[in-house]
Every structure is written in structure tokens, then in C-alpha cells.
Amino acid sequence: MKLRVGPVIKVAFTYVGTIVGAGFASGQEILQFYTRYGWMAELTIAFSSILFVWLGIKLMLIAYDVRAASYEDLNRHLFGERIGNWISLFTLIVLFGITSVMLAGSGSVFSEHLHLSYQTGLLVTLFASYFVIVRGMDAIMTVNSVVVPIMVMFTILLLAGTLGGPGRDAWTRLHTDDPIAKIWIAPLLYTSFNLSTAQAVLVPVGAAIRSRKVLILGGLIGGAMIGALLLAVHIALAAQMPGITQFEIPMAHLIRPFGRVLQYVYLLVIYGEIFTTYIANVYGIVLQLQQRTRLPRQALVVVILALSYLCGQFGFKTLLSTLYPIFGFISLSWLAMLVWRRSSAAVR
């Protein structure tokens, strides 16, 4: 049977869009987990890229193999019935927390950069999300197929500008006094956190795409794209070290020389990454709750959106600083189980 390119690209872009969230698009994640560690960042990025390709494919193939209805089925497969239920409950809570963080982030974009009210940002995101989520996984994959290429184009633009400037080889000369253990735990934390939250979408993708070849190629292309984006942004950030560390959104500073119009367009890219992460998490939560409660999907979507709106009132920074560090370390155990667990689909 001839393999169609379209589904492969959709899987790849959905994978990238799920991983490349607001923290990535702002440049802050790459700065904190990679660039700050100097020239060794190239090695840790390569390590993360291998993990994203290998474990992203493995995650989707396990979902394909066990015909997982949601990430709860995956966690039961990884940890067993009892522990898997607790892991899924914890994942539900954290995913909801991250969902609230993303919604709060959309409000911050509207209030800090577009000079509109915080509540306007929340409500616009809520209504747009509802119309995408109720249309299912295909709509979510379509949104990612629009946002991700724009993000890639901006990254290429940044890289081209950096390689043509005076700091083009700074990424090969940066040094750090941080211990080796700290340098190498950073990519593990980054990968485990992102993959464990990405299961909310990658599991339904693995179950919905009934072709192992599509999942393998989509995971391969998506994981490789994530690694390439990490390296490109790292090179651009390294050229501005150490001064770039003072900015909350380093990428916005890097875009500034290209003119005000592109600054605003890139702001839309950041919002797009927030939006794709938000709808992905809500969709994953709804699937799990639907599996447990048998309530109609649309009703669950409305409930989750309303609850995230209430939590979003606490603000972006408060939610981010509280939830992310906790889940980062817990995710390491989930990553270890994913590495250890074998799937018949993965080895056939």
C-alpha cells in the first residue's frame, strides 16, 4: 500500500506543536535547559533529540498496540492497574494545571503586548478552543499544521540572521562552571516533562492513526524537527549571551532587529503555541474523563474550559512557578517506565 505523505506530516507537526509550547517559543526553555550550559549544549540537545525520536515513536506505538482510548490506558499498561490509576489521576491534575497556565499565558499576551484586557485574552482563547476541540483530533492536527510551519520559518529567519552576524560562532565558544551532573540532568528533565505532558495528545494520535508506518515516520520527522529547532534557537541565543538572560521573552528581543511588523507576527506565533498546547491538554483531559464518566464530550469540554477560566484568574507567573518544578521531577519516573516497558508493536 502506498504511504500517503499528508498523514505523516500531520503527525509530525502535531508532535512538534505539542512539545513546542509557549516556553519554547519564548526562548526561555532553551535558555534555561541548554544555552546556559555553554558549548556542551550541543551534546545535550543531540541527546534530547534522540530521546524525542525514540520515545515519541515508542509512546505512539504502545498506544497503537493497546488501542488506548486515552493516556489512562497507557499508564495502566506502563505501571499496572492500581499504580496506573494513581498516575493517571496525578497526570489529570497536572495537565489541568498546565492548561490553566496556558490560558493565563494567553491573557498575558493580550494585556502586556496587545494592550487589551487580560479577560479578553482568556475569553477569546476559550471560545476559539471550544470550536476546535469539539471537532476532534483531526481539527487539532490541522491547527498544528498551520502554526508549526510559521514557527519553523521564524526560526530559520533567526538562524540566518545569526549566522550572518558577528556572534555566529559564539555557540562553539561558550563556557560554564556548572557541574557535569547538572548539565546532563537538564535534558532529561526537559524531555521527561514534555513527553509526559505530550501523552495527552500523542496517545490519541497513536490510537487514531491506524498505520504503524505513518506513526514511525511522523515520530521520526517530528522528533528530528524538535531537535533541529532546539539547536537553531540555541545558536541564536548563544550569539547574545550573557545579556539575553535578562529578558523574560528572549526570542522577542532577537526578532527586534527585523522590524516592528515581524515582532507582532512573532507575538502571534507565541500565542499560537500557547493555543495549541491549551487545546491539546483540554482534549486529553476530556478523553480521560469521558472514559471514566461516560458524559457527553461537549459537556465535558464546557466544564473543563470553565474551570480553567477560574484557575486562570491566579495569573501566569504564579501558576507556572508552582506547578512546573513539581511535575518535572515526577516525570522522570514516568520516563523511566516508558524506556523500560516493551511494546509488541514497537518490536514487531
TrEMBL record:
Keywords: Membrane, Transmembrane, Transmembrane helix. The chain crosses the membrane at residues 12-31, 43-64, 85-104, 116-134, 146-163, 183-202, 214-241, 261-287, 299-316, 322-340. It comes from the Bacteria. The keyword Transferase does not apply. The keyword Transmembrane helix applies. PANTHER family: CONSERVED MEMBRANE PROTEIN, MEMBRANE PROTEIN. This is Membrane protein. The lineage of its organism: Bacteria, Bacillati, Bacillota, Bacilli, Bacillales.
